[in-house]
Amino acid sequence: MEILIAGGGIGGLTAALALHARGHAVTVLESVREPQPLGVGINLLPHAVAVLDELGLLPALRGMAVETSALVFANKHGQAIYRDPRGLEGGYSHPQFSIHRGELQMRLWAEASAKVTVLGGQRVVNVRDEGNRAIAEIATLDGPREQAADLVIGADGIHSALRRRLAPDEGAPCWRGVMMWRGTTWAPPFLDGRTMVQAGHSQAKFVVYPIGAPRADGLQLINWIADRRVQEPVPGLTAPDRADWSRAGRLDDLLPTFGHWRFDWLDVPGLITRAEQMLEWPMVDRDPLPRWQLGRSTLLGDAAHPMVPIGSNGATQAIMDAKALADALSAHADLDTALAAYEDERRPMCARIVEMNRKEGLDAILDRVEALAPAGFANLADVIDPAEVAAEINAYKAAAGHRTRAP
Length: 407
Known about the structure:
alpha/beta; eight-stranded mixed beta sheet; 31% helix; globular
């Protein structure tokens, strides 16, 4: 098939590689003319790493990323609530990687450019069907143009033009009053140098993990995310204007909340004040759609299922979409049947993750401990049953697609 992908992010580029491996002729159109390694850190869960391994990228990932050993849940005092082994240490077939988003995207861009047509400065603004072909309407710096394909995949993010065809009256993304600040800081390694930590609760949470090996002076690039509720959720609450997304964060927005979070193993205000960069976003998602296909087009990644970043699901679920779509197109000769099979596999799971994350996902555990022991604890078992915590974490992981070797 001739397949056109709108969007050269992680999901779109992974889809391009997966579809090329199945023999399809793929063109990727990215709105940015010259992509740069921008952004901060993300986590790739083992089931996403398995997909990238199938595409031959595991050696490159090992050289670029930190192999996450565990996810630790902690209170705002830095006291551990639960340690969840990850990757090979957790019994998975593949590692979990903490990695710089921009570096991963540039590596995928290079891999895709060597195998398929990848064009920058090309933004798909609409798609229409003519017979059994899709016609993409494309905006470029040189003016509008059109390109025909057997299938157009919308991997163009939370503000997707292809999604608007399915939900023209959807409006702005959903916001519940939480802002998110992301930064990177060179700092001494903490714990074992490979651990990811979520500390605090839903009103104020600090997530931290390394995204590179220590350099010669012993410092390690640490990625951190600070979430803070700035407005109470009410009907009709709208996020800050889109033009303000990814703007530079201010210390005054964070230090009143996190300025006293000094743990035995981490100096949180020190990380914040020494940050190389600090950017601000509203924590938003969208309501699940009843379908992703319209004619000879479908959606993938954030265009299909934008979700708040809880549980390291954003990039991981986009990568899983890419595999599922490539598998469905290989298994079914009829395009409508293939796209229906893809949706049947992916849409219910992703809708479930969106809903779980709206209920705080795994962070609900942090809220319960905060409510029961705001001053901290001497013995966790006096506050909450550790078996209850483990059961809740494992139930979320199963619903989000985690699969270990052992049953």
